[in-house]
Specification:
By secondary structure, the chain is an alpha+beta fold. The chain is about 25% helix and about 30% strand. The strands form two sheets. The chain has a seven-stranded antiparallel sheet with strand order 1-2-3-4-5-6-7. Strand 3 and strand 4 form a beta hairpin. The protein starts with a helix and ends with a strand.
Length: about 220
């Protein structure tokens, strides 16, 4: 009887430990320094302590600048790393026992552009294709001219949109990933205004059955 009780308690503790290891804050503090060039291990731990103490979670990073963690939930973190860069992470369930980490790194100079990556909970990088089969393309954000009156305006503006830039955002409230078209932010103001009537809404993906599925 005693032996069974010991085994039960061991299994229970292992389960609690596994759950704890898959909290966003635990994954964040355990992140390798190689993946966090501006933030030290102490910085990352201080973020958590400050927010949990209801304080402003601002630290001095490796380069002497200020970084701030602006959001923290059990499965989501957002950090304003510098005035021009943002880092987000989200824990996503693959199945009943496995989670992975999705990160979004965004740099704005001045137009924002993002990179999405996936990792195991111990920070081994995973190929993106199984979890995000394809990213939006230019045509997903721009609607062709619907009549001949607008064709020339459209063609002129479309030619000047020669670089695809987009900002990705993970939601802290649900398992969604949204891409916003930012190419107009680097274009000349006149060209951006010409393109504006042809712009579509942001493109959203929802996490379903272990992958991001586009919502049309």
């Amino acid at each position: 009887m005693v032996k069974k009780l010991v085994v039960f308690l061991f299994v229970l503790c292992m389960g609690v430990g596994s759950l704890s290891a898959q909290l966003a804050k635990t994954c964040f503090t355990n992140m390798p320094d190689s993946l966090s060039p501006l933030l030290t291990a102490v910085n990352r731990a201080d973020f958590i302590d400050f927010l949990e103490s209801k304080m402003k979670a601002e630290v001095t990073n490796r380069f002497g600048g200020k970084s701030e963690m602006t959001e923290l939930t059990p499965d989501y973190i957002r950090v304003q790393v510098t005035p021009q860069s943002i880092w987000q992470m989200k824990l996503l369930s693959v199945n009943d026992s496995t989670r992975l980490i999705c990160t979004v790194s965004t740099v704005c100079a001045p137009a924002c552009d993002s990179h999405v990556k996936f990792y195991t909970t111990d920070w081994r990088e995973l190929p993106s294709a199984p979890y995000l089969a394809s990213l939006p393309g230019m045509d997903d954000f721009i609607t062709p001219a619907s009549d001949t009156v607008d064709v020339y305006k459209y063609q002129d503006a479309r030619l000047q949109a020669d670089m695809l830039l987009m900002k990705a955002d993970l939601s802290g409230k649900d398992a969604t990933l949204t891409f916003t078209f930012t190419t107009p932010d680097y274009m000349e103001k006149e060209a951006a205004e010409k393109l504006k009537p042809f712009l579509r809404r942001p493109v959203s993906y929802t996490w379903k059955e272990g992958k991001f599925v586009r919502e049309d």
